[in-house]
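Quick one: co-fold with 9WO.
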Amino acid sequence: MLWFAVITLFPEMFTALSDHGISGRAFRQDKTRLTLINPRDFSDDPNRRVDDRPFGGGPGMVMQAPPLARAIRHARDLAVQDGVDDPLVIYLSPQGRELTESRVVTLGQHKALILLCGRYEGIDERLLDRYVDLELSIGDYVLSGGELPAMVLMDSLIRRLPSVMGDERSAQEDSFVDGLLDCPHYTRPEEFEGMVVPEVLKSGHHAAIERWRLEQKLLRTHEKRPDLLEHAQLSPQHRQWLKERTGQRNSSD
Ligand code: 9WO
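Sure, here it is.
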């Protein structure tokens, strides 16, 4: 069971995850749970305001610390009631550490995560200092808020839960599981606008098909994301094959 609480001004956005696809099935099967908490419910302002002007001036508004602190404490209480201990508090922000597959694997060890979604120009630094355990970024760009990055993180974690994926292997053979990009995929029709399917995939020779798929992963990674090759788990034979296939000369050549 993976338990989420999300603190967000736009809880309705999260139906994209809870009501559809693989993640929707995981929620229906109670393999994961989601509690949505709106900080406006913890505002002490008669108009339920949770933002104010920045000290020092400047554009935009800043989310105030007190309503968010009360919301995080409420999320922690709910986690205790649900029997999931010690939730990690994650703030999705452009200033965060990069979300990578290895970080997804590490975060998947936690039973409970509280995800804090900022809006406006950001959140009062004092809240972040005292209540946030980890800041995470899904990329070097600024969005309108942390909700979409929160859903990206949740989806990456939910699809790794045991028996959530229809075919266990597809989770294991996903891109990045071995540090490589995925191989090409084909399905019917056999001919599409004059383009055909590689013969090996129709041969029924599973060893040859597996070898072809790995070769394609290596070549595609070399072509599109050579930076990944440095840390990919490759055997010396596979590294040598790739060097020979791509005409790379050994540094000693
Ligand atoms: C808003 C703004 C308005 C005027 C001038 C400067 C400004 N900066 C921002 C801003 O950075 N807003 C962020 C919106 C505050 C935190 C939540 N928001 C957010 C999170 N945008 N992008 C992310 C994000 C999170 C994770 N990975 C990539 C991007």
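If it helps, The chain has a mean pLDDT of 94.
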